[in-house]
Amino acid sequence: MKKNKKRMVNGSVYSGLSILAVIWLMPIFWVILTSLRVERGSYVTTFFPKAFTIDNYVHLFTDTGVLNFPKMFMNTLIIASASCVVSCFFVLSVAYCTSRLRFKLRKPFMNIAMILGLFPGFMSMIAVYYILQALGLSEGVMIKAALILVYSAASGTGFYIAKGFFDTIPKALDEAALLDGANKWQIFTRITIPLSRPILVYTALSSFLAPWVDFIFARVICRADASQYTVSIGMWRMLEYTMIDAWYTRFAAAAVCVSIPIAILFVVMQKFYAEGMSGAVKG
Amino acid sequence: MEKSGFKAAWCQGDRITKCSLLLMGSSNFLRGQYIKGFIFLSVQIIYIGIMLTNGFSMLAKLPSLGEAIQQEVWNEAKGIYEYTAGDQSLLILLFGISILFLTIAFFMVYRTNVKSACHVQYLKEKGLALPTFKQDIKELFDSRLHVLLLSAPVTGILVFTILPLIFMITMAFTNYSKIDQHLILFDWIGLKNFAEVLDVSGDIGRQFWGVLGWTLTWAIFATILNYILGMLLAIVINRKETKGKGFWRFCFILSIAVPQFVSLMIMRTMLQPEGAVNILLRNLHLIEASASLPFFTDPTWARITVIVINLWVGIPFTMIQVSGILQNIPSELYESAKVDGANAFTIFTKITLPYMLFVTTPYLITTFMSNINNFNVIYLLSGGDPTPVGMSAGKTDLLVTWLYKLTIDKQYYNLGAVIGIFTFVVLAVISLLTYRNTQSYKDEEGFM
Questions:
Q1: Given this model, what pLDDT does residue B1 score?
Q2: β-bridge mates for residue B188, sequence order
């Protein structure tokens, strides 16, 4: 009797989980199907494609007349790499200062950073655009520099996770190094940073991923300059009314191409995030 | 003299120290700290240069925000019409605020200069050696490391967050808007915009209260449903009896790994009247061949659709985040509950939920905040639609997406700024109230 009940519970759990898993995987499965579909356009009469092809991928990378996907990919890669380096430096510096150094403006600085986080981020977008224009960064190649600045310049406010991690590194290590004659810069670069690999990887990856998934700022700053598009605006363009018919299957191909590397990086990042949360030195 | 500062420099400073009140860096320079003195002096020269070329004229125009209209002037010599450069209120406002920032920064350098001047005099009087420039640099890597490390990030925050924010806040007090053609020249109009947005009888006011109501409803539903359902999913997967935990978890995590804008745009096309979901339903004969479900065209349907799809986006996140905490619940609690004959539902509501609420309240608050500001889900999914004719706010628009529409599409910059400020006020009030009332704030070790 009791065994029977247990079997029933298990059965309903597995069937429930399977239904949910199908719901969660269906959109992803559907994109992959669409990226291999022969018929063009977004409106089809059958759920499964009538015939399969890899032309969508080939065209995506070779047909660069209207929307140049390889170029967009490179643009995003450059912007992401540069802003990753700058953000890492900013976030780690601020986190170290707030965690280890004591100075007069420490508390006010932390409170201001908290308050700034409550404003809708793109409320200041138009102002940022005019500031970039005043700095001469709103035309041509300089758009890349502008986007790098937009993604990394204010990253200093997002220091809380890294600070929490630095707080768990024992102060005794710092004191020992001080006795050995190290200055604070050396403690920061030789002790704190090497000990914080999980948080370093997490910060690097999350700032590297931001330009790939943001399209609000990119759209305002790139405006009509198609040569400077990042992948997200390019893909947004592919779904516009005039483009969607010819580009829909290629959009799906692009989605697959962008998602695979991001998915891999994301899984790596999750692992380091979990490690970072559990503290620096384990007992 | 032991004290340093303006008063000390004025009352106790010698001639050289007083001189540096007027000419920055002179005390350092004349006493042998050449490089430091030179840096102070060049800061002063640059600042005065900026003020003389542009600064004062910009500041003078700040109260009126410019009056000269762009005009056509007949050029006799060339025989053509030429345009005179008119004032652009926007640039006057932006540069005016920048100049104010610059002035504050300058005064901070100036204060450092005065302090340094006094300090140098003090060291000389005591017959102590002055620190060389090399020693000053060395200090930057040790006791003054925060100055070295923070100057670049703080400059970034000042220029790209605080300056734009103040600029946008000031905009709320102007008539910078497409209404009455105030896009080039505009004026200060005080609190009129705030009155317009809050006025229930007006067009904008009615929409504002509607949007605010939906924003709060959305945030509450999105947060609570995500939390409860994500937790249930995590509990089911983490059950002792469930096999293949890693596989199930992978199925759900995969949807996080796909960039949000990609999955949301795909969802949007799938849910169109002729999209994949309707076609699937037609093929399965669940709806008629020409019928389609009004996912984004009927207000109630659209609101439910965005909440449900947000569940698709959010549940895996919650699942990951609560999994670890769930395993920390002391197993004795469960065992004694079972001995007392509690069923699964009672255990969940009496043990799991209170424990989780106690530990994760700060997480819940941040989720609530980010849902109020959840631009991506709404904008990419429904775009705020369906929008009633003649309105600027759609039925699924949140304050943030409405703000975006008002500024980018309609160019009502002033109203957009007011709504941004109100969004901030709502967030600040909620975060203060909820955080102060949580158990984990009042009593850090209260559970058990």
A1: 56
A2: B174
